[in-house]
Structure formats: C-alpha cells, structure tokens
C-alpha cells in the first residue's frame, strides 16, 4: 500500500503542498503553524538521526628528542554536514491539502526555511499526533521504504514529507481527533507544532499504522 502511495500520489501531494505554500506566502508567513513547541528532553515523535555526526580529532604527536612545551589541543569542530543542517528554529511547518484515494488519506507536511542562510534536510521527519493537553495519541508513525537524499533549502525554499494512513471509516480502526501534529526535523529534538483540523486519525486496531516518507524537494525550491 505504501509503494502505491509513493508512485500514485506523489504528484498530487506536490499539488497540495504548492496550494498550502501559496496560502502561507499570501498570509505573510509566521503564525502558529511554524511555532516551535516547548517540549521535555524526551519528545514524542522525535526524529531518529538520519546522518551520524562527525568531529575532527587532533592527531597525536611523537615525542621529540628534547623537552618541549605542551601544545594545547584544539577543540573538535563540527563537520560541514552537521553545521549545514536546518535547525528547528530556522524552519516553519504547514500541513498541505489532503489527496485521498484508494482508501488512503494523504497529506504533505511542508517545511520552509525561514532563516537567512542555506541549510539542508536529510531523511525522515519525526511526527506525533497530540491532544490539547499535549498527550500523544497512538504510536509514533512508521517510515515507508525510501532512499533519503540531502535536500538543500535556500532561504524561503521548502521540502515536504508525506504522511498517510488508511481511512478509519473503511478500516474500522479506533480513532481520536488530534489537536495538533508535532513535526520534528531530521536530527533535531525540538518539534514544530501544526494545528490539526483534518478530522479523526487511526490510533489502534485494524490498519491503524501511520506512515511517513523521506523528505523531497518541495514547492518554492
């Protein structure tokens, strides 16, 4: 079902993403959709690292023939890939228009670079549905098969990931009506809070799994 979603609904998700981004631009950006949620150190839906961090180390120096003054070691520096990563504070999240089909509900989740620098996104987002009190509804979404690629985002440009689940009225899954969707950029721990007004979502029972796709180049890029 996930492979069908990737092949059949990608173009439709892009169209929905473009419509959401146009609305965001018309409204001047900002607002609650891009507001970073305050969260404890362990967050629901936190994205697992998509890339491993790399630090440079100072090589050991063999002793010389005579006494020498100790050489202070340089602190490790972050790799270019790590320093280029988009941080939560530099991004804004919006939910695109649903494109239902074949018993599926399909939404693009769009992240836009609101900073003044070019940064990158690589891999999958973290995501979690929450109620008005911030309690998570259902388990974390699962990752649908895909090959992560690094997406470069210039200021004002976007990337999107698809979120999809079986229509609970068809599957008969137990449901809940979320207040918001928490979206965590890859390798980040702080989520972005997106208001959810798309109705009930499955949280347990038959075909209740929610799936996420890898980030792809999105509207405005």
From TrEMBL:
Residues 1-28 form the signal peptide. Residues 31-87 are annotated as: Disordered. Keywords: Signal. InterPro entries: DUF4232. Pfam families: DUF4232 (PF14016). This is DUF4232 domain-containing protein. Residues 35-59 have a biased composition (Low complexity). Residues 60-78 have a biased composition (Pro residues). Residues 86-206 form the DUF4232 domain.
């Amino acid at each position: 079902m996930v492979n069908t979603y990737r092949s059949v609904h990608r173009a439709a998700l892009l169209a929905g993403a473009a419509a959401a981004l146009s609305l965001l631009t018309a409204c001047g950006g900002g607002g609650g959709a891009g507001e970073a949620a305050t969260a404890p150190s362990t967050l629901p839906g936190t994205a697992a690292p998509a890339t491993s961090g790399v630090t440079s180390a100072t090589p050991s120096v063999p002793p010389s023939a005579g006494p020498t003054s100790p050489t202070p070691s340089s602190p490790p520096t972050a790799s270019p890939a790590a320093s280029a990563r988009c941080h939560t504070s530099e991004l804004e999240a919006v939910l695109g228009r649903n494109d239902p089909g074949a018993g599926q509900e399909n939404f693009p989740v769009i992240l836009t670079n609101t900073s003044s620098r070019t940064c990158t996104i690589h891999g999958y987002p973290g995501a979690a549905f929450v109620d008005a009190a911030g309690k998570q509804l259902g388990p974390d979404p699962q990752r649908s098969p895909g090959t992560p690629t690094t997406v470069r985002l210039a200021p004002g440009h976007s990337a999107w990931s698809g979120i999809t689940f079986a229509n609970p009225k068809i599957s008969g899954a137990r449901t809940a009506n979320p207040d918001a969707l928490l979206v965590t950029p890859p390798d980040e721990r702080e989520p972005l809070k997106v208001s959810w007004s798309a109705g009930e979502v499955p949280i347990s029972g038959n075909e209740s799994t929610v799936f996420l796709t890898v980030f792809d180049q999105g509207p405005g890029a």
